[in-house]
Design goal:
The chain is mainly beta. Helix content is 1%, strand content 54%. The strands form five sheets. It has a 24-stranded antiparallel β-barrel. Strands 1, 2, 4, 7, 8, 9, 10, 13, 14 and 15 form a ten-stranded mixed beta sheet that branches. It is globular.
Length: 714
């Protein structure tokens, strides 16, 4: 019997019941209350046959006590031995193995929520989403526990989520939005309790059901304090050892049930994962993602800029980032352009909801760097929900030097995001910068219209960035341009292709056309392709990528080689392959041939992942660019080798190694991180770094760092 019912708005409804006896988390579901609670069942496929009943049954029962919400999950499977698990580390990738996920939309606004994912071995992943997945924060961490158990007909799990982990409005009779999904990886099948079109995912809270029967739960004092201490012995490349110790404090306070204040004093980011190196053969700065925990948490509230296209390809190892313009890019705070750390003295951040608005406020103070005083960075963000599934907002950003009042920059902007009839989206923003001594050309804006459903996706957008637009805490790829973007594709699923192991055919094209502010074309990077998606989850894509560049100042592709001003056009042809990443051995490849400015290129990117078990993984990638250029320029070759080795002792203890060698820089680097989660949200890190210059007789750079954090909840 299922607890599914239809709510007044025709949503599926599940009911939570109270337990008067303690639940022992062992994954067995043998307490009596699990037999009393009626299950949310009758899951529906999104993949491979949307709308059909799930091929294997799933049942979810929901109970609560005064402190926590509990989920009892039974994942039946006619081939229990076929369950796939290949990772048990924190924040594992649910899409690469059998998994179960739940989204809790605790304000029932059908836009935002907390997502908890598990796999049959008890691995955990948690995510915070906003605006139905437009803002996804995978670095959000919560206190919750899970235990799983293998059964004769599948696997089962018990999940405990303390109420003080969540944010919600108190009161009797309140409802939450809720949805569940299950992935049966060997079939590449995705099932939902409340149906979701296959073009979307669980983050689309608007498709969720309703959870009733909840208590007027308390959230405690909502105060978390995390003191930390670190010690290090480091030597810069060619330098001498420098020993030191630091202490600091992070704190989190729930000002209201929906508003959170985060504070940090002298934060230390030594445990952050090292950046993966990139080879830059373009005129523009490379995009490196933020990896520091303080800036990642609740980062979605400050998102303003390009709205990323929804991707259905899953693992795309060699696809470049699509960011063209991010008004707030936290890597500008506390890091130089070369990735060197600038000390941060203190910072605070207020995020959440107040008076019908989503709000975010952040201030960061950096310390001195050499003879330069520190800077103050301030970001203010507000967003208001309107209509059924839309929002309007505003943002203000400022950088102010502490020793020179004229050394400052600020940006203000407004944005709007509208969704209609599920598949139609209209987005836009307008911004203006202010810098002393600069007048004119300080505006930037964008308008975009998108259609995205199961059969068709199409988009047109126009981005304009003024000649003198400046944003000291943003990522702006280029200024003084107008960018026309066109995207069009058809998703075809004729039944006859399935006999060849193909699930979907996807012809598509994208056009990126740049002009200057007088509408003279300066660049285009276009893409015409045909992709085959396999039943196993891999895909193959053939590409034709026409390129054009017009430059007015010489462009140096190498320190001693440059292209003179003029117009250049060429064609690139590529083949991209991703195999089934749920298998023990999987691979990725992107091979590009064709022109390169006045010459030719043979570029190869190949990656291989080997997982002997879900404890151990080997991941190696080679990127090689073989460039031929006419005289008087010279041919050149670049090679970048990246190797990752990961070992998960259990779901709380991990050892990760990142090794890199770049023949262009003649540089070898190593980053080894040991992480023991000794209690919830509390870690012991041991980090070793090494850097060697192979073409110069320099003392290698080395560093050993120990960091201990201890979270206290009140």
């Amino acid at each position: 019997m299922s607890s599914v019912a239809a709510a007044a708005d025709d949503r599926r409804t599940a009911t939570a019941i109270e337990t008067t006896t303690a639940i022992t988390l062992d994954g067995a579901l043998d307490e009596g209350v699990w037999r009393t609670a009626e299950p949310a069942a009758d899951f529906i496929q999104a993949e491979p046959h949307e709308g059909d009943p799930a091929s294997e049954s799933t049942e979810v029962r929901i109970v609560f006590d005064r402190d926590a919400l509990y989920l009892g999950v039974r994942c039946h499977d006619s081939n229990a031995g076929g369950v796939i698990v290949n990772d048990i580390r924190k924040d594992f990738a649910p899409g690469e193995q059998d998994s179960f996920e739940v989204i809790l939309d605790t304000f029932a606004d059908r836009r935002n929520g907390f997502v908890f994912a598990i796999n049959p071995a008890g691995a955990k992943s948690d995510t915070q989403i906003a605006n139905e997945g437009r803002d996804v924060n995978t670095s959000w961490d919560a206190v919750w526990t899970v235990a799983t158990s293998a059964t004769a007909d599948g696997w089962s799990a018990e999940i405990r989520i303390p109420f003080k982990t969540l944010r919600f409005e108190r009161g009797e009779g309140r409802i939450w939005g809720v949805n569940f999904s299950r992935r049966i990886r060997r079939k590449n099948e995705i099932d939902y309790w409340s149906p979701v079109p296959r073009v979307y995912n669980l983050y689309r809270a608007g498709f969720g059901g309703t959870l009733e029967g909840l208590p007027d739960a308390a959230q405690g004092s909502n105060l978390r304090v995390k003191p930390w201490v670190s010690a290090n012995s480091t030597r810069a490349l060619g330098g001498t050892f420098d020993d030191g110790a630091r202490i600091g404090l992070d704190a989190k306070y729930g000002v209201t049930p929906s508003l959170t204040l985060d504070m940090t004093v002298r934060p230390d980011f030594a445990q952050a994962e090292a950046d993966e190196q990139q080879v830059n053969l373009t005129q523009f700065s490379l995009f490196f993602p933020e990896k520091r925990e303080f800036f990642l948490e609740n980062s979605g509230m400050f998102y303003f800029g390009d709205i990323p296209r929804e991707s259905r390809l899953g693992t795309q190892r060699f696809s470049p980032p699509e960011e063209e313009m991010l008004l707030f890019f936290s890597r500008r705070i506390g890091l130089t352009d070369q990735g060197e750390e600038i000390p941060i003295e203190a910072g605070g951040r207020l995020t959440g909801r107040a008076g019908g608005f989503g709000v975010g406020a952040m201030t960061i103070q950096t310390g001195e760097q050499g003879d330069r005083a520190g800077d103050n960075y301030t970001v203010l963000r507000a967003r208001h929900d309107i209509l059924g599934n839309s929002d309007v907002g505003a943002i203000f950003l400022s950088r102010q030097s502490m020793d020179r009042s004229s050394d400052r920059n600020s940006v203000a902007g407004v944005d709007a995001n509208f969704r209609f009839v599920r598949a139609l989206s209209i987005n836009g923003f307008l911004t203006r910068s202010s810098t002393p001594g600069v007048q004119g050309g300080e505006a930037a804006g964008k308008g975009s219209i998108t259609w995205n459903d199961n059969r068709l996706h199409a988009q047109y957008s126009l981005l304009s960035v003024g000649d003198n637009f400046r944003d000291d805490i943003g990522f702006i790829k280029r200024t003084g341009v107008r960018k026309h973007f066109v995207d069009f594709g058809i998703r075809q699923r004729p039944e006859w292709i399935r006999r060849f192991g193909i699930r979907e055919l996807h012809p598509h094209t994208r056009y990126n056309i740049y002009t200057d502010q007088s509408n003279t074309k300066v660049s285009h990077t276009n893409h015409v392709a045909y992709a085959w998606f396999f039943e196993s989850g891999g895909y193959l894509e053939l590409q034709w990528n026409p390129r054009f560049e017009r430059i007015v100042t010489p462009f140096k592709v190498r320190p001693d080689q440059l292209f003179t001003p003029g117009s250049y056009g060429w064609n690139e042809y590529a083949i991209e392959l991703e195999t089934n990443h749920s298998r023990r051995l999987s691979g990725s490849a992107l091979i590009t041939l064709g022109g390169f400015w006045t010459g030719t290129q043979k570029s190869t990117k190949v990656g291989v992942v080997f997982r002997p078990s879900y404890h151990l993984s080997f991941d190696t990638a080679l990127q090689r660019n073989d460039i031929s250029l006419p005289l008087p320029m010279h041919d050149f070759v670049t090679n970048l080798v990246t190797s990752r080795v990961g070992y998960a002792f259990n779901t709380r203890t991990f050892l990760d190694t990142l090794l890199q060698y770049n023949t262009d820089l003649k540089q070898f680097s190593a980053n080894v991180r040991f992480d023991l989660i000794h209690r919830p949200l509390s870690d012991l890190f041991v980090v070793y770094n090494e850097q060697q210059q192979t073409n110069r007789d320099l003392t290698s750079g080395r560093g050993l760092i120990l960091k201990y954090t201890h979270m206290l909840a009140f």
